[in-house]
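User: quick one, fold this
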Amino acid sequence: MRKVILYISMSLDGNIADNNGGIAWIGGQSDNFQGDYGYGDFIESVDTVIMGMTTYRQIMTELSPNEWPYPNLKSYVFTRQEVANNENVEFISSDISKFISTLKVEKGKKIWICGGADIANQLMKADLIDEYHVTIMPVILGNGIQLFSNDNPATLLKIEQVKEINGVVDIVYTRRTD
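Assistant:
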């Protein structure tokens, strides 16, 4: 069975974006750092990326407006709007939990939950996230878009891996089974 991985960056106080949806604060202690914080290794382990419409729009307008950054991944965007599929993305308006449950039993690599918070919280409530790969940036935003909502179920986790690079802490958690 394929694993569903929430791989996401957040501030120390749990925000994935500022109040305006901005992510310019993402980065480490030194602006001169040239590494990728493990992203290259991670992206090799997945073949599917899932995101919501807000994340998709941010990618298309700010992060990579001229080129789809995931050409080798099957890409799904969940939206309540009617949007025509394009060569890179399939837009889905069906129930995300049912869709992910179906994907999990298909053959393939890991499934990446890219964003945003609404998608992550829906999947948490449905107990469909197998691994929480959270990259904590050395910043406290004070307010913004929180990754985890207050109405999620309690989820016991265990640390699988911790790395620190340039002041950024990368933590991989899996659900505890005991």
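User: anything notable?
Assistant: The mean pLDDT is 95.
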